[in-house]
Design a protein that fits this description.
The protein is α/β, with parallel strands linked by helices. The chain is built from nine helices and twelve strands. It has two domains: about 120 residues, Rossmann fold (3-Layer(aba) Sandwich), CATH 3.40.50.2300; about 100 residues, Winged helix-like DNA-binding domain superfamily/Winged helix DNA-binding domain (Arc Repressor Mutant, subunit A), CATH 1.10.10.
């Protein structure tokens, strides 16, 4: 069963979407704000997000942008606004597709399936790096068929790096992404986890120092050039 995260400040719309999608094999998780959706996604995996744009406090554009800081989950924006510039803005923020309200049930389902197919193909490639393989469902990392005993946080860090090769992540960004927006976790916690992650990668023979790079004064990145 596929899991879809529904994000809309109108309960009526959440209930209507669930009514459409549940008979087609989707488990629907309902969230009424962008912040609730972000907190959920940091801790849980879903197959796709249906995201309303016009929400108070944090609108859909801002929510989409925040999600893209740590996740490649497919996102379809749902909105009553269909002007071309609004569509372009949503896509630039990282959305995969855009459906205007009121929408046709069959069209929505077809777009969801198409977006998920494209994303699965991308993820199959992005979670491999020089014989280093990550199974995000089972939280298992292997190198040349050797299992690497990572903690959940170490695995989450590694998956984030591999999903975004050559992107520099600040310590603050890693804290808010991996540690569930708990700002009281200190910077040295990140450094300690990175140190342990490098050591575990080295232990199985993976050239960690060639890939997991320290960007002095800023944070860390995963280099795909080595």
């Amino acid at each position: 069963m596929k899991i879809v995260l529904l994000v809309d400040d109108e309960q009526r719309m959440l209930d209507l979407l669930a009514l459409y999608l549940t008979p087609h094999g989707y488990k629907c998780i309902k969230k009424s704000s962008g912040m609730d959706a972000l907190t959920f996604l940091v801790n849980e995996k879903v197959d796709i997000v249906l995201l309303d744009i016009m929400m108070p406090e944090m609108d859909g554009w801002a929510t989409c942008e925040k999600i893209r800081e740590f996740s490649n989950v497919p996102i379809i924006m749902l909105t009553a606004r269909s002007a071309k510039e609004e569509v372009v803005k949503g896509l630039k923020k990282g959305a995969d597709d855009y459906v205007s309200k009121p929408f046709n049930e069959e069209e929505l389902l077809a777009r969801m399936e198409a977006v998920m197919r494209r994303t699965i193909n991308v993820q199959d490639e992005s979670l491999k790096s020089n014989d280093l393989n990550l199974d995000e469902e089972a939280f298992i990392a292997t190198y040349q068929n050797q299992k690497i005993p990572l903690t959940v946080k170490e695995f989450s860090l590694l998956a984030l790096f591999i999903n975004y090769p050559n992107k520099v992540f600040t310590r603050e960004h890693l804290l808010t992404t991996i540690w569930n927006f708990k700002s009281y976790v200190e910077d040295r916690t990140i450094d300690s986890h990175i140190r342990n992650l490098r050591e575990k990668l080295r232990h199985v023979g993976f050239p960690a120092d060639d890939h997991l790079k320290t960007v002095w004064g800023i944070g860390y990145k995963w280099s795909s050039d080595s």
